[in-house]
User: Fold this.
Amino acid sequence: MIALDDARALVFRSVGRLDEVTLPIGELDGFVLAEDVSAAENVPPFPNTAVDGYAVQAADTATTPVELAVVGELAAGAAPTHVVRPGTAVRIMTGAPMPEGADAVVMVEETERLDGGALVRVRSSVRVGDAVRAAGSDVVAGTTVFRAGTVLNGPSLGVLASINRNTVSVVRKARVAVLSTGDELITDGGPLAPGQIRESNKTMLLPMVQAAGAQAVDLGVVVDDEQRLEEVLRSAADTCDAIVTSGGVSMGDYDVVKAVLSRIADMTWMQIAIKPAKPFAFGLLANRHGRQIPVFGLPGNPVSSMVSFEVLARPAIRQMMGHTPERADRPRIWAIADEAIRRDTDGKIHLTRVYGAFAPDGRLHVRSTGPQGSHQLAAAAQADGLAVVPDGHGVAAGGPVEVLLLA
Assistant:
């Protein structure tokens, strides 16, 4: 058997980063930056008020209460037309530019309008700069706001908009082909004949690929015909960036997937020291353009397929899209096992499906989702973590366990 870390290293060093594309800001959510981004202008571009209130000279409020003459009003988006001189104030709304002469803003809650708004009574003192956002107080022109490798999201897109970067270079998202094979797989909803089962792995893997940030391409179910399977795989290699199959990867099995991939791709067939998901295959299939397309051969048992995708295929696909190794993987956290996680010594790491919640002690507390068989997807479906249980006799109730967070 091969150690999980060694299997991951083999996969990760074999996948390359995809090429770069330039996209408009409205399409960038979830992409990884391929360039450093610097600001060409200050944010905010001018001094403005952080509150609704009155722009004043701070010295006028040294002794309060004090009454000031209101010489104008200024809304956000308007240009200042009045000058604040000693003994005067300008009524101002959040975001409006500071008028000439003003050096502070009194919050409206600390004021009282008098004489129909011609005067304002200020009840508390302010200092120079109070409630004033200086030009460049968020971003100074010339500052690098994001480094290559940053994952873009809503707030970061807001930053790009604020510095007038409406297009940037990113690593494109992977197109990942997903297929199932087997004459026994039924998708039409009809009654099952002896030996038939309903297809579930492809149905499960398609949204998992999408959730990883890639574009899932559904290639359907391919019958047990070597020529047809080869055609599908070669076409996928020509149009996609990675291929995910399930089933036919166990040692000693004869399966059309194994037969075809062994012939047309450079494959490594592994037995990994984990449970579930011990059998796994990985290789490269050359397409007609000369590109080497990664092929992930997942086990056929549905839980094994799910787990091997999470710990091997998913992080590799995310690295292809520019994610750093730390961000490509699911986050890990040390949790408390609220019940014993029992196992026998067998030379493998057990990846136990668990669910949990954060408790008042600030720790994540987890429990088994139920039956842990590699075919028992119903119990695994609600797992929000994989407990990493090293070889040995398990984890005692109340003991610490490392958890790979799925949600």
